[in-house]
């Protein structure tokens, strides 16, 4: 009876160890992407929509913490003085944290992600009098807390495309009489992970 119990326990422990070992084995492509995420932790990109649609400059930097997460920041400088100054921010700085999902399919901090961000921005509000803008334009500073989603593709060479969007709730620091409750964050970024 003791021998049978010993054999059963030995068999169970060998099977459990074999399952644990097989779960941690990565394919060659998974190993290369894991190594890529360890080596290439920095990414720089530029929002092409901001440059093409608006005269704006919108670079982004991200530091990859591991293959599941990253931290970074967006900078946006809008050069448009006449069109849509009530809608678009003149300047914004937005630090963020990203969590990547579907890690069994996408390695190296890429794929579908969710992010939380804090956005500091300034905007201008033209005052209108009987339909005509008064030259006296006031600038306001606001801060927003928000969330976003996106998808990031990274090639083996490091070229990246990042499509993202988010919505933030303003915290009410601006004393603008035409209160803005929300702000957006959208872009199509092309860049390089190195």
Question: How would you portray this structure in words?
Answer:
The chain is of the alpha+beta class and 194 residues long. It has 2 domains: 1-29, no CATH class; 40-193, Porin. It has 3 helices and 9 strands. The protein has an 8-stranded antiparallel beta barrel. A hairpin with a 4-residue loop joins strand 7 and strand 8. The protein is elongated and about 90 Å long. Mean pLDDT is 80; it is low at 19-23.
Strand neighbour order, sheet with most strands: 1-3-4-5-6-7-8-9
The mean pLDDT is: 80
Helix fraction, binned, reads: 10-25%
Number of strands: 9
Largest sheet: 8 strands, antiparallel, barrel
SSE arrangement:
Elements: H1 2-23, H2 28-39, E1 42-47, H3 48-53, E2 56-57, E3 59-66, E4 69-78, E5 91-100, E6 111-129, E7 132-154, E8 159-170, E9 182-193
Antiparallel strand pairs: 1-3, 1-9, 2-4, 3-4, 4-5, 5-6, 6-7, 7-8, 8-9
Task: Summarize this structure as a short list of keywords or feature phrases.
single chain, 194 residues, alpha+beta, Porin, 2 domains, 3 helices, 9 strands, elongated
Quick synopsis:
The protein has 194 residues and is of the alpha+beta class. It has helices at residues 2-23, 28-39, 48-53, and strands at residues 42-47, 56-57, 59-66, 69-78, 91-100, 111-129, 132-154, 159-170, 182-193. The chain has two domains: 1-29, no CATH class; 40-193, Porin (Beta Barrel), CATH 2.40.160.20.
